[in-house]
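User: Hey, quick favor. My workstation is busy. Could you predict this chain's structure for me?
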Amino acid sequence: MTQDIEQRVEALEARLNIIELEATYARSFDEHDGERWSSLFTADGIYQSRPVGDEAPVTFVQGTTALNEYCSGVPFEGIHMLHLPQLAIDGDRATARIHLDFHGSWRNSADAPRLTMHGYYDVAYRRVDGHWRIAHRVTTAFSREFRTVLGYPTDSVLPSD
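Assistant: No problem, here it is.
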């Protein structure tokens, strides 16, 4: 019975650690904290997007240095809204599917398009030195919508009577 409880606690801890990893993933990417974001991956970790049709992947980044540079240099601001991961854990390896919504806009441009993306991540994790890390993450988009939102011009005034 004791071993069963220990195994169950270990499984719960693994799930909670991966959920925390995913929360840190979203926040550090949204804050362009490339150093922290890249530290969530294994040393040879991969972030990529799934190609659409016969197109090449939009993004393929591998390794800590490249991941750090990618996150630090993305030309847009945004926020990830992640759903809870559907996890399968097997010892020091795990996989997940995580549905997401992303809302963003390009920096330094008042009339830049706004992006809304709905999709999911397929993620492979490895436990390295007692810590869960992302080994491979693939983004699949169900939909991407680009809109230009103009708003009120900054120099607009009401007509005087």
